[in-house]
Structures are given as C-alpha cells and as structure tokens.
Amino acid sequence: MFSPEGVYVAMLTPFRQDGGINESEMRRIVDFLIQGGVHGLFPVSSVGEFIHMSREEKVRLMEIVHDQARGRVAVTPGVGSSHPDESIYLAQRAKSIGCDAVVVAPPHFFPLSQDMVEKYFETIIDAVDIPVILYNIPLFTQPLSYDVVKRLSRRKNVVGMKDSSGSMVDFLHFMDKVSLIGERMNFLTGREETLLACLMMGGKGCMTATSGILPEIMVDIYESFLAGDYASARAHQFSILLAIRAMFSLPFPMGFKAALETRGFDMGPPKQPFSDAERFKLKTMSTRIDKIMRPIVDRLEGRRKAAGAAG
Known about the structure:
Blueprint: E1 6-10, H1 23-35, E2 40-42, H2 55-69, E3 74-75, H3 84-97, E4 102-104, H4 114-127, E5 132-136, H5 146-152, E6 158-163, H6 168-180, E7 186-189, H7 195-200, E8 205-208, H8 215-226, H9 230-239, H10 241-247, H11 254-261, H12 276-310
Helix pairs in contact: 1-2, 2-3, 3-4, 5-6, 8-9, 10-11, 10-12, 11-12
C-alpha cells in the first residue's frame, strides 16, 4: 500500500483577480516543484486556503494538480472539513481522480472531545477506499492525542501522519505509541524547521509550505541526510530559518505567498480582505521578504544554470 515518504509540498493556491483558482499558474507551480525534486504534492491544504474554497473548487484543484503531475510524483489532497460527510465526499472524488492518498485533519470551529475527534476519523476512514494520512494541526483544530493516533493506526488504510505541532516531544511520542503496538505508519513533520531533527529520530520526511517555495533546499536536507552528510544537512536546515521567520511575520499564509512570488509566480490578491494598516504592513514586509529571498533564489538559479551547462 502507498506510504508517504520524502519531501511533500503543502501547496499554496494562486487566485485570479476575480477570486477563482488561477489554473495556468497552478500548473506552472506543479512543474516547478517537480523540477525541484519533491516527492509529493498536497493540494487543498491549510496554507493553500482550502477554508476559502467551495466544494467544486476543491475538487477542481485536485484535478488540476493530478493532471499536471502526470504520475511523476504522488498527489495527496486535503479533504478536511467540519463534518465527516463532506470529507468522505471529497475523499471519494480524490479516489476517482486517481490521487494516491488523502490528508484528513480534525474538524475545525467547534471544540470537540478526543472521543468525538476519534469517531470523526473512524467514520471517514471506514467509509473510503483510499489510503489516509492523519493530520495533526493544533494551530487551527483540535490537537490529536497520542492514544487516538495509536488506535487509528490499527486501521489498514491509515498509512501516515503529518504532525504540524512543531513539538519534537509530541512527534516522538506519536511514533513510540504506534510502534509499541506493532503498527507501522510513516510520520512526516509539518514544520520545516524540524525536518532534519525528525529524520534523525526516524521520521520519513515532511509536508510543508517551504517545500513549495524552496523545494531545492528542502530536498537538499533530505538527500544529505540519506547520504549521511549530516553537516550539509544541518547547514541547509539553518539556511531557511530567516526566510521562515519573515514569512510568518504576515497574517498566514500571506508571507508564504509573498515568498513564492519571488520565484516568479503571480499568487493574486488576498482572499481575506485587508485593512489599510494591514495592506501597508503587507507591502513593507513583502519588500523585506523579497530582500531575504533574493540572494537565496539567485544562488539556486545559478546552481540550476550550472547543472544545465554541465548536463
């Protein structure tokens, strides 16, 4: 059965001026990411602003990404919702499109007990015939407990988990709880700052927004680790921290979209209306993000040209 492993991209979504998905730009982004060496694509993501999309837009985004990927990398769209019926519908559509797996986050908005969160996952997992990746994202939803993840891991189509807690403590306990009952699933970090640390402790990769902005560096971390070149992996890991701090300085996910624009993509207007003060901050911080990103991008472009000349 499919298992997520390597560098996966939590994909940002470009929008047109009228608010619709910018399909041509989305296809360019898919090709850019695959050329950058990533192993999988996660559209309809949190950073991709799925919360602002209609059901039809979510399905269309899955179709665009899957069609453009053309089997070159795995496609694992998000099917998060506040109600299991909607997640089941989206997962079934992902299956019919040909996606490799789906990413399921806890329900948002209403606070629920861990028992209710577990039942939510069970209802979805048991109703669909596609591999499922659990998604722990306490920033926006109910956090998953270690025991809920342990019990869900027993279901045969649960193949992995994206942990965006940013906590190595939680990451290790999730892994240990599953291991102690003899189950296997792949754990990926959802925080780019912890990729190397998670790999060192047995994690299998990442699912992050920065993988969609600086795919070359995230792949460098992963490949350096696999090669046993830990000094290079550490250097690559530290090289992205300033950019990450700058991206988080704006209301999520606008800093990440500003950074992706430095790679030559038109991400379109914000889906959430900005106040005058926020628009001024966006302009100011976008300039700072560009200043931070520019030398990184120039270095990567130089490396790409050198590789092309050598090839």
